[in-house]
What does this fold into?
Amino acid sequence: MSILKEKLKSKIEAWRPRTSRLVKDYGNVKISDVTIEQAIGGARGVKCLTTDISYLDPLEGIRFRGYTIPEVLEKLPKVKAKDGEMPYVEGFFYLLLTGDIPSEKDAMDVAEEFKKRQHVPEYVFNVLRAMPIDSHPMVMFSAGILAMEKESVFVQKYNEGMNKMDYWDPYYEDGLNLLAKLPRIASFIYRLKYKNNDIIKANPDLDMGGNFAHMMGIRKPYDDVARLYFILHSDHESGNVSAHTGHLVASALSDIYYSISAMIDGLAGPLHGLANQEVLRWIQGVMDKMGGKVPSEEEMKKFVWDTLNSGQVIPGFGHAVLRKTDPRYMAQREFCLKHLKDDPIFKYVDVLFKVTPPILEKQGKAKNPWPNVDAQSGVIQWYYGLKEYDFYTVLFGIGRALGVVSNIIWDRALGYPIERPKSVTTAMLEDFAGITEKELQTAK
Ligand SMILES: CC(C)(COP(=O)(O)OP(=O)(O)OC[C@H]1O[C@@H](n2cnc3c(N)ncnc32)[C@H](O)[C@@H]1OP(=O)(O)O)[C@@H](O)C(=O)NCCC(=O)NCCS
It folds into this structure.
């Protein structure tokens, strides 16, 4: 058994009594009330999910297994100094899954596991080649993942008959098999769609981030960009659309392939993952209007107001939970200040960072006027030559899969049941509100 699986097994066994005790002895303790606004408004803020993989504090931002982003970047084992300054994605996955900071040996052990599992069956590429070349890359990514469903170890073991408490084991096997293949599938889609089908073979000596950069055909330090990007986008607790979709689908015991394909579909929406391409599209629209010159703060203010007044949102700003500048934005901003501070698009983002929050505050609608992760990430990709911004959400998807796979493995380990919230009708809500039949008739 690998170091990671051995460690995970002992963590699961130690954790189970905590969850069982809470349900058995304290199951009736109330943790949240639900208002009409929440029932109509997307269950915003209703505390009804449990995860230990990450926690999002509205004022502090994300913590992965208790560690802030700067702590994660500092404490995790780094890819050898000559190769880069970012941690191994594989070591980060070890942290997500076990809650412990891995040693260099632990991280390398996961990297070896991923290498062993990275081969993608040829039929996946055939499925992708058969799709219209103008399909959105997220559609291709989701389809490529779903095409591999027949490989599921869980389905095979489930059909043979197995103990519920052992479900996590084949989910782990499926999860690692899938994660190891995602960079290959994603880079294949990129090269097929945008680089004239000039596919670059995997280099089995490289780590996940390094191999992805290699297969994309993008020079250093893009390997570090990939590592940072995958880590930052991995998880944002479990209520956001992509994480929640993955968790929900897997709660029906649909296997990892179904669950992660569905997760990708949720991520593809413009209010969620797709926003990172929207930011760049919007900025380039501004650039075109400005003839490429970096706008003054006054000029940028006008663009922001014009966008708002035309009924559109400012992409990359606002968040459903966060109430401060996203630390994922800050980590990428630091990277930009170090590697691309003179890039014209970065300068646009920089001016936007200064002028937008006060405008959103003045407009008074957005609960959070500060930038989120998407405001900065597209700029870095563009700078390193990844200019096809339809592809950006695929990168997000590789990262997000790390967190969602970790969550799903733990969901099965702790025996979480199928998810089934209760809905009510509009008439029932009116009844709760004490609105009478007469009032309803007069309102007509
Ligand atoms: C992220 C987002 C979807 C969160 O939505 P939310 O939780 O409903 O946000 P709020 O509760 O603050 O929204 C209240 C109002 O402010 C508006 N608002 C929020 N963010 C805004 C923004 N960046 N620009 C303009 N208006 C915004 C909302 O559209 C909403 O308007 P409405 O009452 O007319 O419907 C939203 O902030 C948004 O659309 N941002 C831009 C897209 C983006 O960056 N998405 C990536 C998120 S990681």
Q: What stands out?
A: DSSP finds 21 helices and two strands in the chain. Strands lie at 54-57, 61-64. The mean pLDDT is 95.
